[in-house]
UniProtKB/TrEMBL annotation:
Species this protein is from: Szabonella alba
Transferase among keywords: yes
Residues in Aminotransferase class I/classII large domain copies: 31-392
Reactions catalysed, as given in the entry: L-aspartate + 2-oxoglutarate = oxaloacetate + L-glutamate
Essential cofactor(s): pyridoxal 5'-phosphate
GO BP annotations listed: amino acid metabolic process
Protein name (Swiss-Prot/TrEMBL): Aminotransferase
Description of how the protein assembles with itself and partners: Homodimer.
SUPFAM superfamilies: PLP-dependent transferases
Entry annotated with the keyword Transferase: yes
E.C. no: 2.6.1.-
Record-stated family: Belongs to the class-I pyridoxal-phosphate-dependent aminotransferase family.
Signal peptide positions on this chain: none
Length: 400
């Protein structure tokens, strides 16, 4: 009898974490390495949020809270959805978890049965398919390539839906591409979903506040009120508020689903950190003026990286609407050989050779379900990005 679960054999470790770990190991060994793999803002958590956490500690608010979030935090989340998205929820429709990832996982565990399918536009965040597999479902990737600016077409969505489809996972702006759907583009997708009432929508809005130029964020239940009763709208404080390590995610949806998710959480982690919840309360209710400078810095970095990568031989890099990622296509590099003698057979070979020969760590596209590409996280300083992109330019120029 095997000791490890058969289910575990179906999934793989997170490639983004693996790349970051490898880069850190090389740095520790004295190598000159630039890590562009981690999806983590380089900004510090704003002071007023940190001070709120300190006050909570000093006030002794270090005990268990309600399993899926403090009442006052749930109230603040309801106010956020009303204020920013025009969505009305009650606290009974809200759940708080230990990061956005737990929220998504709880929902999948609470709803999936063997044979249930989950539609995931590709390229996708690396964890979506594996979470579906862990929950006993079947992930179904639906291609959204560079020819559509990495956005899923209504026809592709329609063609992928079957009687077994239970969820459609939607992420805008996207990790890994940064692509954001306009209201019209999203409405075209929700029109398809309205024709299939058995399909639920899981909207991952984690990068909501990180949008550029004149792009206006919107979320499915906001665009199509008819989807309200079968949509789980997910968000968190990790990215926009530079609170990745605080581990607070949240979602709102139908009461029956929220109760089921709370049951899962009650028998796994129980409540998120009480101190982190008080910090998140301040993040949502407190000053929001720092978001503007954060966005401006990320937009400047996006422009820098897009311009420099498009100057690379064999590389095409679309300009995304949000998040802090770009997802360049390297079709023009496939089949060539690096200066170090590596045959660039695919994007994994490209990323491996790039790291070994230049010290730049990126995540290869196959990890996100669409090749040949790689993902760059530009959540680091301008100077570091210029250095990294210069090295990538030199690497591409050396391919023969």
């Amino acid at each position: 009898m095997a000791f490890l679960s058969d289910t575990l054999a179906r999934v793989k470790p997170s490639p983004t974490i693996a790349v970051t770990t490898k880069a850190n190991e090389l740095k520790a060994a004295g190598k000159d390495v630039i890590g562009l793999g981690a999806g983590e803002p380089d900004f510090d958590t704003p002071d007023h949020i940190k001070e709120a956490a300190k006050r909570a500690i000093d006030a002794g608010k270090t005990k268990y809270t309600a399993v899926d979030g403090m009442p006052e935090l749930k109230k603040a989340i309801c106010a956020k959805f009303e204020r920013e998205n025009g969505l009305t929820y009650t606290p009974a429709q809200v759940t708080v978890g230990t990061g956005g990832k737990q929220i998504l996982y709880n929902a999948l565990v609470a709803t999936l049965n063997p044979g249930d399918e989950v539609l995931i536009p590709a390229p996708y965040w690396v964890s979506y398919p594996d979470m579906v597999l862990l929950a006993g479902g079947t992930p179904v990737a639906v291609a959204a390539g560079i020819e559509t600016n990495f956005k899923l077409s209504p026809a592709a969505l329609e063609a992928a839906i079957t009687p077994k489809t239970k969820w459609f996972i939607f992420n805008s702006p996207s990790n890994p591409t940064g692509a954001g759907y306009t209201k019209a583009e999203l409405k075209a997708l929700t029109d398809v979903l309205m024709r299939h009432p058995h399909v639920w929508v899981m909207s991952d809005d984690m990068y909501e506040h990180l949008v550029f130029d004149d792009f206006e964020f919107c979320t499915p239940a906001q665009v199509e009120p008819g989807l309200y009763d079968r949509t789980l709208t997910c968000n968190g404080v990790s990215k926009a508020y530079a609170m990745t390590g605080w581990r607070i995610g949240y979602a709102a949806g139908p009461v029956e689903l929220i109760k089921a998710m709370a049951k899962v959480q009650s028998q796994s982690t129980s409540n998120p950190s009480s101190i982190s919840q008080h910090a998140a309360l301040e993040a949502l209710n407190g000053p929001q003026d720092f978001l503007g400078p954060f966005r401006e810095a990320f937009q400047r970095r996006r422009n820098l990286v897009v311009d420099m990568l498009n100057a690379c031989e064999g590389v095409t890099c679309p300009k995304p609407e949000g998040a802090f990622y770009v997802y360049p296509d390297i079709s023009g590099c496939i089949g060539k050989t690096s200066a170090g003698g590596t045959k660039i057979t695919d994007d994994e070979a490209f990323a491996t050779a790039l790291l070994e020969e230049t010290g730049v760590a990126v995540v290869f596209g196959a990890a996100f379900g669409l090749s040949p590409n790689f993902r760059v996280s530009y959540a680091t300083s301008d100077a570091v990005l210029k250095d990294a992109c210069t090295r990538i330019q030199q690497f591409c120029a050396s391919l023969t």
